[in-house]
Design goal:
Structural class: mainly alpha
Number of strands: 2
Number of helices: 6
Helix content: 40-55%
Radius of gyration: 21 Å
Distance between the termini: 48 Å
Strand order of the largest sheet: 1-2
Oligomer: single chain
Length: 147
């Protein structure tokens, strides 16, 4: 149903992402039972309204089955060379790691509003990495508590 509604243009890709973000393994069967009505209710909504609707649905689904939350993904970073002497970087952090990276990027941000935010963040990461590895001390092994 959801895929069909997206293909038909009845819901946007942003709406599909919102729905998928709220669907966890233990609620898949419940969503399948109500998918037709749920998708129909999303048609014509903005992404923000879809988020509110799906958060409401998720709270109700959690009330029916309050099992454990799905595990957080392991922190990961992929940094790969691509064609044309460029690199592609993609990362996932837990709340603590993400907050640390966010703070470091803010500190290193040039705040030059004539430069796009995505470019400033990339420059900030390069500046931060370039300056910090020179003075770095060995990090604790992965999975240990950072103090």
């Amino acid at each position: 149903m959801l895929a069909g509604a997206w293909i038909a243009g009845d819901v946007s890709g942003g709406q599909v992402r919102v729905v998928v973000e709220q669907l966890i393994e233990r609620h898949m069967a419940l969503f399948a039972e109500h998918e037709e009505a749920a998708v129909a209710a999303l048609v014509g909504l903005s992404v923000d309204d879809t988020k509110r609707a799906m958060l409401s649905w998720r709270l109700k689904a959690d009330a029916l089955d309050d099992g454990p939350e799905p595990g957080m993904p392991e922190p990961s970073l992929h940094h790969s060379p691509t064609l044309g002497n460029t690199f592609h970087t993609s990362a996932t952090f837990d709340a603590e790691g993400g907050s640390i990276v966010d703070a470091a990027l803010r500190v290193a941000d040039s705040n030059d509003l004539d430069v796009a935010a995505v470019t400033r963040r990339a420059d900030a990461l390069v500046d931060f990495a370039g300056s910090s590895w020179i003075t770095s001390t060995p990090r604790p092994a992965a999975g240990t508590v950072h103090t």
